[in-house]
Amino acid sequence: MASNVNPTVRRRRLGQELRKLREQKNMTAEEVAERLLVSQSKISRLENGRRSISQRDVRDLCGVYEVEDQRVVDSLMEMARDSRQQGWWHTFGDIPYSVYIGLETDAESLRVYEPQIVTGLLQTPAYAEALVRGALPETSAAEIEKRVGVRMRRQERITTEKEPLRLWIVLDEAALHRVVGGKRVMREQLEHLLKLSELPHVTVQVMPFEVGAHPGLNGQYAILEFADAADSSVVYLEGVTSDLYLEKAQDVQKYAVMYEHLRAQSLSVEASRQLIDETAQRYTE
């Protein structure tokens, strides 16, 4: 796969373009589905970029939307072809959250609120392994190794010198005290967290217990933003059996405002580093 081709992003952009064409014709997804003798859910999935789209699908949809400009059709067909290529994560086999990985791989910035654990992009291999083993007790050793491998590969967006991911983490203090993998693993993890927090594109703040109730009590979430203006921001909510992606402007805005409150109520960057360091020192054998 060409390095500049991200199939997840291509599917998302293609879906947005197809939705625009449908809306320009003042047609509902149900009406399009009836014309093509397919389910309405298929049209919805094609438009939200959650499933692969074939060039035949594009051709049929362009026919329904009466697209006369062949350059537009050719462009959409090319996007469909690119969307069926494989990203780096496909070499690891079936990954439950592959859609998110595709978005994260192409994102310019990422804001995360994490209430329970150190976020995946900042985890050490030992911490990640202990976390997966504890959270998914019936997972095989091979599957654990694969999940940890994917997590370490994702972290290259943080350590790369060329256009690294801008990362802002608000970490609940609980994550510093939840002993994952034992005291040695925790000390190593918190020291690693401190080291990464010194990178110019990584910001870590801790939400202290003393704050009490705050806007993040509903759980973990992430806001992904992209350099290309054609790609709207996405709020990602992780679930046990399925994930949720919010792309409507009003939804993204609500979570963005909530994140500003979280940042304002958290410790400063320096105070956060001091607390992380003090907590790490307490993890002695």
Overall morphology: elongated
- Number of helical segments? 13
Low-confidence stretches: none
Biggest sheet descriptor: 6 strands, mixed
* Fraction of residues in β-strands: 5-15%
- The radius of gyration over CA amounts to 21 Å
- The ordered H/E elements are HHHHHHEHHHEHHEEEEHH
The average pLDDT score comes to 88
Number of strands: 6
Separation of the first and last Cα atoms:
47 Å
Structural class: alpha/beta
> Percent of residues in helical segments?
40-55%
- In spatial order, strands of the major sheet run 3-2-1-4-5-6
**Domains, number:** 2
The CATH architecture of the largest domain:
2-Layer Sandwich
CATH topology of the largest domain: Endonuclease, Chain A
Protein name: Transcriptional regulator with XRE-family HTH domain
GO molecular function: DNA binding
Pfam families: DUF5753, HTH_31
Domain HTH cro/C1-type: 18-72
Summed up:
This is Transcriptional regulator with XRE-family HTH domain. Strand 5 and strand 6 form a beta hairpin. With 285 residues, this protein is an alpha/beta fold.
Description:
This protein has a six-stranded mixed sheet, with helices on both faces. It is elongated. The protein has two domains: 7-83, lambda repressor-like DNA-binding domains (434 Repressor (Amino-terminal Domain)), CATH 1.10.260; 92-283, Endonuclease, Chain A (2-Layer Sandwich). Helix 1 (7-24) packs antiparallel against helix 5. Helix content is 51%, strand content 11%. With 285 residues, it is an alpha/beta fold. The chain has helices at residues 7-24, 29-36, 40-47, 55-64, 70-83, 98-106, 125-135, 141-154, 156-159, 174-177, 183-197, 249-265, 269-282, and strands spanning 109-114, 166-172, 202-207, 221-225, 234-237, 244-246. The chain contains 13 helices and six strands. A hairpin with a 6-residue loop joins strand 5 and strand 6 (244-246). InterPro entries: Cro/C1-type_HTH, DUF5753, Lambda_DNA-bd_dom_sf. It holds the Pfam family HTH_31. Residues 18-72 form the HTH cro/C1-type domain. One of its GO terms (molecular function) is DNA binding. This is Transcriptional regulator with XRE-family HTH domain.
